[in-house]
Amino acid sequence: MRAPELKGRGWLNTGGKALTLADLRGKILLLDFWTFCCINCLHVLDELRPLEEKYGDALVVIGVHSPKFEHERDPQALAAAVERYGVHHPVVDDGDMHIWQQYAAKAWPTLAVVDPTGYLVASMAGEGHAEGLSRLIDELVAKHEADGTLHRGDGPYVPPPAPAGLLHFPGKAIELPSGNLLVSDSARHSIVELSPDAETLVRRFGGVRNEPFSEPQGLLLLPSEVSSIAGYDVVIADTVNHRLRGLSLTTGEITLVAGSGRPWRSTVDDHAHDALAADLSSPWDLAWFDGKVIIAMAGIHQLWWFDPIQRTVGVYAGTTVEALRDGPLPDVWMAQPSGLAVQGDRLWIADSETSALRYVEGGVLHTAVGQGLFDFGHVDGPADQALFQHPLGVAGLPDGSVLVADTYNGAVRRFDPAAAQVSTVDSGLAEPSDILVTAAGEVLVVESAAHRLTRLAPGVVKTVAGERHKTERPPSHLAPGEVTLDVIFTPAPGQKLDSQFGSPLRLTVSASPAELLLDGEGTTTELSRKLVLNPAVPKGVLQVVAQAATCDVDAEFGACHLTRQDWGVPIVLDTAAPDRLPLILRGMDA
User: What Gene3D superfamilies does the record point to (predicted)?
Assistant: First the structure.
């Protein structure tokens, strides 16, 4: 089919020019449907970088930003995100989800390939498609070069001006024993030590992407009795490199302490694993709890633990299903946990994609504030009615209350556990991503999009009865009663299903609320499933996790691959609607 036109609200990284498909004729187009809150979308940005370099004169990547959260609809916030994450290709602002609907996208991220003559030739959801895309692009290059329809040359990307200033999109901050501050300067790929005034540079570690850091985030000062044995003082979440590193404050030496550097692709059992051999996934924050380093593993919606003395890691909480479900650890659901703080016997969690404040106590996960993947806003009052919008940071106060960096609301919020009430402490901040309560009782906010640390004025409390929002992602309409869920999977070029260790397919289905599904919940080894939807529940969310194992064809030592995607599909029951829900795990057909 002909590729639909790219009609958006505006363009970035093009020097102000609005692009059309006619402008791009003769190039292979790779459309990346993303939203900047989504960790899987950020993974894809990094997976695409080698493809952009390899096929630079034949391939044009276009980021199609189709937002989930209200804040992401703000053109200035989108421009900041494009700068923050080093997006080096044109981006079209699809704020009204028009392009999303035209290309029938159903998940973040979704990739679509358009050939040089303007035909849509492939569509696939999720991450981990770089190798399959490379083979497909090779085929398209060969065909269209032979046909004379491939036009090599420079693409439409126009780079933005270089940033200035001491910090550039800082992420997290901690206080050192000296009173100095340690800050992850994420967009400059470095760790910065500042004097207590939060403005004077003492020293900087790193500063070039991948040498040794790439967009680092969380920082943790180890207990002295642990650091003396481990040989380093601070653990650093080297987020985009999928690793943890150790920093000696005395020598400045940086040591790799956990992570193979490969992004996580398959399940991990409940045993301890060698830390350096383990595949991590976008570690975002760190805390010392329960005698271990707890890792907010944002990329796979889990918490992991790391033992710096035994040099082992393992799963602490979560199943990789992206949703909100409480209960005993580890069999709980989270959605991109991004902030951690310890307060007595509680580990507080900023669970960003559910816009929730949650905590672990006594081996059980609880939700203090938050209602699910698609409900968010800026509402104060009783905790069971209050709303956040994609919070990234959390900090405990001496009085037992908790401060939350309510990132997409540009606010600092306070949760009082005793009264079960939420209030607003300050607002008008630029994407606050962390909160630090110093030993002297000062509160510092990492105001990420303003590239600074800001002191919070004491005693300021506001009450906000703001707007409630639901994600305006178009729901799928399905008939009540029996419906068929079909996950469509076609192996990438040069690959085949790998059944040497049993069924290569796995499908897990659940629902929120649970009452939505009368039948069909659970895990099977087929990608098609009969579901029975409850006519008494008019709407909800189907959680679908599908994976397929493949291996290379005609290779003596063929590589193995695992393709996996997690969907949260909002649905509305309608008697006139279809009784089939198709989802594409990886499709080579449009």
Answer: Glutaredoxin (3.40.30.10), TolB, C-terminal domain (2.120.10.30)
